[in-house]
Amino acid sequence: MSKIIKSQESDKDFAEVVRLIGEARQKADRTVNAQLVDLYWAVGEYVSKKIEANTWGKATVSSLADYIQLRQPGQRGFSAQNIWRMRQFYDTYCNTPKLSTLLRELSWSSHLHILSGSKLPEEREFYLRMAKKEGWSVREVSRQIDTQLFARVVTQAPKLSTVLRESQPQAEQAFKDSYFLEFLGLPKQHSEGDLHNSLLNNLGRFLTELGSDFCFVGSKFPVQVGGRDFELDLLFYHRGLNSLVAVELKITEFEPEHLGKLNFYLEALDRDHKKPHENPAIGVLLCASKDDEVVEYALSRSLSPAMIAEYQTQLPDKKLLQAKLHEFYLMNLAQEDGV
Predict the structure, then answer these.
(1) Could you tell me the CA-to-CA distances from 155 to 80, 178, 209 in Å, in that order?
(2) 160: part of which helix (H) or strand (E)?
(3) Is 196:235 a contact under the CB 8 Å cutoff?
(4) pTM score
(5) How far is CA 181 from CA 146, 235, 313, in A?
(6) pLDDT tens per residue across span 9-58
(7) Among 164, 156, 154, residue whose Cα is nearest residue 299
(8) Parallel, antiparallel or unpaired: strands 214-225 and 159-160
(9) CB atoms < 10 A from the CB of 42, how many?
(10) Most buried residue among 78, 115, 177, 286 by CB atoms closer than 10 A?
């Protein structure tokens, strides 16, 4: 075994080689995945056209699966069920060429979750683009579909102050009206300390729920004003908005007076911590619940770039969200028809 020479310079050089190896492996994995998706697309297209021509049926596809196993022993991924999925994959996207490049960038397992969990073309495209943009794992794709992210985003716009909406128009895409924290495993009755500690213990998953542009800065972030010391619950930085993001936790329903303390923290961050090139800090009140009308009144006169969201520790009622989504589309159709 060769002796490893330790030095600061060699560590830097060795780390660069490891980085190059990692990049090469990622490129290889992406290439293999793209080829696999291309293969499944081609098989799906072939099967679809045979069925459309009334020359193949369900029994034929089962025979094809048996034939593949006979000619390619041990070949995985070509069961009759999966071949039908390939056909569904092709039929679903064959008329949407704008998605062709994006389709090759997601894993087959992610595609299966999106196909089975999405009913609308807009919903499928939403999850495809989000999975790519946020770098979701297969498990996270499944989780976001389970939490009905598309329905929540479409029907529940984030509650932003007028100042935030006007100064940072893209903030509406950066934040959500509700955040699902079911991965914390918190009981229905929990303390603010329980919530805070659980978020820190599951920081990676919380960052995934927030979005890929969020970077963690600190917990119980010290804020000193005059001769007094204060602590901000959580501090993040958003790369896209180029702003510090202060998050205050409340295990109760939102109350208008909560905004006062948040505004105080934002002023302190802007005066004492904001870099010259950064935009003003943004405040997020993350509450257990909120009355949207109370929120609207409270934010309408707020002079700070702030927003109010709620967190939930249980998965959403899918039927309720789907009903809201259906109502949303009916309303849009009525508006388009001039009703």
Answers:
(1) 38, 11, 18
(2) strand 159-160
(3) no
(4) 0.84
(5) 13, 18, 5
(6) 677 777 877 887 787 887 777 788 899 999 999 999 999 999 998 888 88
(7) 164
(8) unpaired
(9) 12
(10) 286
